[in-house]
Write a structure and sequence with these properties.
By secondary structure, the protein is α/β, with parallel strands linked by helices. 33% of the residues lie in helices and 22% in strands. The protein contains five helices and five strands, in the order βαβααβαββα. It has a five-stranded parallel beta sheet with strand order 3-2-1-4-5. Strand 1, helix 1 and strand 2 form a beta-alpha-beta unit. The mean pLDDT is 97. Bound molecules: [cytidine-5'-phosphate] glycerylphosphoric acid ester. The site of [cytidine-5'-phosphate] glycerylphosphoric acid ester has 17 residues, from strand 1, helix 1 and strand 4.
Length: 129
């Protein structure tokens, strides 16, 4: 059993998120997603429109996601990798290089982002409606 993990806010769930999760899941047999809590998002300087509990429900309903856990801190990744016997850590390429330190614990993979879609762009488009 090959376990893959990824993390994110997944606010205003969109096809860029779906494409990331689909490709991450294809790298193994199980995909765990660490969803940033609202408190952690504040630490990240992000404010999500969709509350944490709803974002977790959306992720849990995605066919590519097998398990959802809270992401409360930057530091938890190495503990999660051990706790969940993770083989591969995946992030979109906007994070390229940022998590290379995890390569001592598991494979680290950065995947190209999906072009022309982002939560920020969706928020901007909604703001002018
Ligand atoms: N993503 C993507 N293509 C897009 C938009 C997002 O591939 N058009 C990917 C991002 O690269 C990330 C994942 O989808 O891997 C989730 O994106 P965000 O919710 O924006 O994640 P972020 O807020 O950057 O949180 O500890 C890591 C952080 O929690 C990542």
């Amino acid at each position: 059993m090959k376990t893959v993990i990824t993390y994110g806010t997944f606010d205003l769930f969109h096809v860029g998120h779906v494409n990331l999760l689909k490709r991450a899941r294809a790298l193994g047999d199980k995909l765990i997603v660490g969803v940033s809590t609202d408190a952690f998002n504040e630490l990240k300087g992000k404010r999500s429109l969709v509350p944490y509990a709803h974002r977790c429900s959306v992720l849990a309903s995605c066919r590519y996601v097998d398990d959802v856990i809270p992401e409360n801190s930057w530091a938890q990744k190495s503990q999660d990798i051990v706790r969940h016997s993770v083989d591969t850590f995946v992030m979109g390429a906007d994070w390229e290089g940022k998590f290379d330190d995890l390569s001592c614990a598991c494979e680290v993979v950065y995947l190209p982002r999906t072009k022309d879609v982002s939560t920020t762009a969706l928020k901007q488009a909604l703001a002018v409606l």
